[in-house]
Design a protein that fits this description.
Layout lengths: L13 E4 L2 E7 L18 E5 L10 H4 L4 E9 L8 E6 L2 E2 L1 E6 L2 E7 L5 E4 L9 E9 L10 E5 L5 E5 L8 E2 L3 E6 L3 E12 L2 E11 L3 E7 L5 E6 L2 E6 L13 E9 L2 E10 L4 E4 L2 E4 L2 E2 L2 E5 L13 H14 L3 E3 L7 H10 L2 E5 L11 H7 L11 H22 L5 E8 L8 H15 L6 E5 L17 E4 L12 H16 L5 E5 L18 H16 L4 E7 L29 H10 L9
Parallel strand pairs: 25-26, 25-32, 26-27, 27-28, 28-29, 29-30, 30-31, 31-32
Antiparallel strand pairs: 1-14, 2-3, 2-4, 4-10, 5-9, 5-14, 6-13, 7-8, 7-10, 11-12, 15-16, 16-19, 17-18, 17-20, 20-21, 22-23, 23-24
Bound molecules: (2S,3S,4S,5R)-3,4,5-trihydroxy-6-oxo-oxane-2-carboxylic acid (GCB).
(2S,3S,4S,5R)-3,4,5-trihydroxy-6-oxo-oxane-2-carboxylic acid (GCB) binds next to loops.
């Protein structure tokens, strides 16, 4: 559990960020594990941490590498930390990593977007220099989350073929921190929030390690105590509560303390937004009011650092989202950094939080197959490895995401998979199990969804009965009915929406978009021009506005992003409303004009 509480420094916790420039070695011949590289690397180059390693050097072999890479750094552990539990914590390493300190394994973790920590007390020299070696692996298979495969070329080169449309960036993507924690400490906090008129309620549960008594204070944004409680669980009541509202966030701080005989042992602050989320009929209610999602599917993606954490980029994105009148995003197609989620809480940005289950459809470039509307050639869910290891990895990814993000006010729904092949019969028992597993796990019982793709249109999807909200990715007017036919694309979309409306559930359009080269203008419009993207949006919006069950539109994508190279993509996917360096295309202004007129509440 220690890894899942964000590493805040407090009166009782010491945190040291050891990110920076580390030594690095590419393991081209896959020899490091057998040759004892864990004890120390030779022939190293340099690498930035955090960052993807792919786009930093000029080496193709590194950019497109399949397999292990190795990192090494040195660090001190202060002598006065001997009386504490000392950990090294990674915000994430993609897709799996093993960490060695002074030659001893301290932690191994699978799953590229979650924090993990290893205890160091027994392996470090206090007051001395210690060596840490990390091996990171980026391979994909049918039963990994996300899914893909590896092909071997005639010259022996192994190449990763993801079953998804974004670059398989890898490396140590988020900060690496040393944590010195009290040996008796707060291990986990869970909050549930509710309100009745002016009275707010925060139900809390705290698990602590070791001995001590728990006390809790709830502070407002001025730092004034508004409620207190004692014990590991209880209810904090707030008079004249200020709700966490989309676009207008208010955050209280739950200050949890652990004391023994009046002496403070540990203290941990958790930001809490008081809000409720509910689905009622075809409405998605936040704080009992019907909410309309306006925004984007995003990526953690930028030039040079790839998927590496970048505070400036995240803030810029928040600024642009506010400017354009968006109120929500989906964390397509994996969990984003903890710092991003904290910003979303702070800014009142509503988040559909997605697991890294993407590519559950084993056709290369599945988005192109989807595009052509061809018959599914996928037997993904029939595979025994998918039904066993794949299912386990999927559950593990859900469990970790819920643990990490359960308390975020910004999270209003969980997306358990993006575009799995739910046209297949075998997907039905698979998702039955996945959904019943996930339903038990979220203490707040937020709505669950999976994101449906074009090859499982209305009437053919085998898993929509499990979702609370129907989420659709559709490309009428781009992958199908593009160009001259686009005039009728909106009508076709409207017809399909009519069908989905029969389900009596809210519908969110989680993807619709058209690739657009920034700066390319054409009159009359043609595909890839800025004019076409705007006309395409008008067609789509017409369809949404005509369907009362549609409670949201999230255009694909917020910004242009990197993909695998190939004939479908010119230096990446260009469906952004913004360019990769976060400047607006014409469509961004177009969207802003529409979204400025649509209120988050009561639009329909
Ligand atoms: C999709 C996928 C997304 C792709 C997008 C596209 O349906 O969910 O990952 O990038 O289509 O642009 O083709």
């Amino acid at each position: 559990m220690t890894a899942f509480l964000y590493p805040h420094e407090t009166r009782t916790r010491r945190i040291v960020d050891i990110s920076g420039i580390w030594k690095f070695r590419l393991d081209n011949n896959n020899e490091g594990r057998a040759s004892g590289w864990k004890d120390g690397l030779t022939d190293t180059t340099l690498m930035a941490v955090p960052s993807s390693y792919n786009d930093i050097t000029t080496e193709k072999a590194l950019r497109d590498h399949c397999g292990d890479v190795w990192y090494e750094t040195e660090f001190y552990v202060a002598e006065e930390w001997q009386m504490r539990d000392v950990f090294v914590r990674f915000g994430s390493a993609t897709h799996r990593a093993t960490v060695y300190v002074n030659g001893e394994e301290v932690v191994s973790h699978d799953g590229g977007y979650m924090p993990f920590a290893g205890k160091l007390n027994d392996v470090v020299q206090f007051g001395e220099k210690n060596k840490m070696v990390v091996v990171v692996n980026n391979e994909l298979s049918h039963s990994t989350i996300p899914a893909g495969t590896i092909v071997k070329h005639a010259n022996g080169t192994r190449e990763i073929k993801p079953f998804f449309d974004f670059f398989n960036y890898a490396g140590i993507h988020r900060a690496v921190k040393l944590m010195a924690l009290p040996t008796s400490r707060i291990e986990d906090i869970t909050v549930l929030t509710d309100f009745d008129q002016d009275l707010g309620k925060v139900d809390y549960q705290i698990s602590a390690l070791g001995q001590g008594d728990v006390t809790v204070a709830l502070l407002d944004e001025e730092g004034k105590t508004v409620a207190t409680s004692e014990g590991n669980e209880g209810v904090l009541e707030i008079d004249n509560v200020k709700l966490w509202q989309p676009g207008n966030a208010y955050l209280y701080t739950l200050q949890a303390s652990l004391s023994d005989d009046g002496q403070l042992i540990d203290q941990y602050p958790l930001e809490v937004g008081v809000r409720t989320v509910k689905v009622e009929g075809t409405k998605f209610l936040i704080n009992n009011e019907p909410f309309y999602f306006k925004g984007f599917g995003k990526h953690e993606d930028s030039a040079i650092r790839g998927r590496g954490y970048d505070a400036a980029l995240n803030l810029r994105d928040m600024e642009l989202l506010e400017w354009i009148g968006a109120n929500s995003i989906r964390t397509s197609h994996y969990p984003y950094s903890e710092e991003f989620m904290q910003l979303a809480d702070r800014k009142g940005l509503v988040v559909i939080n997605e697991t890294p289950a993407v590519g559950q459809f084993d056709v290369m470039m599945n988005f192109m197959s989807a595009a052509t509307g061809g018959q599914s050639q996928s037997n993904f869910f029939d595979r025994p490895d998918v039904q066993t290891q794949g299912m386990e990895a999927h559950k593990h990814a859900i469990a970790e995401l819920f643990k990490r993000d359960k308390n975020h006010a910004c999270v209003v729904m969980w997306a358990l998979s993006n575009e799995p092949d739910t046209s297949q019969e075998a997907s039905e028992p698979y998702f039955k199990e996945i959904f019943s597993y996930a339903r038990e796990l979220d203490p707040q019982h937020r709505p669950l969804t999976l994101v449906n793709f074009m090859m499982a249109p209305y009437g053919t999807c085998r898993a929509h009965q499990y979702v609370d909200v129907i989420c659709l990715n559709r490309y009428y007017g781009w992958y199908m009915m593009g160009g001259l036919e686009m005039d009728n694309a909106g009508n076709m979309f409207a017809m399909e929406l009519q069908g989905w409306s029969n389900e009596g559930k809210p519908i969110v359009i989680t993807e619709y978009g058209a690739d657009t080269m920034a700066g390319m203008h054409k009159l009359p419009s043609v595909q890839w021009s800025e004019e076409y993207q705007c006309e395409y949006l008008d067609q789509q919006h017409m369809a949404f506005d005509g369907c009362p069950a549609v409670v949201g539109e999230q255009m694909w994508n917020f910004a242009d992003f990197q993909t695998w190279e190939g004939i479908m993509r010119v230096d990446g996917n260009k469906k952004g409303a913004f360019t990769r360096d976060r400047q607006p295309k014409m469509s961004a202004h177009h969207l802003k004009r529409r979204w400025d007129k649509i209120d988050s509440f009561g639009y329909k």
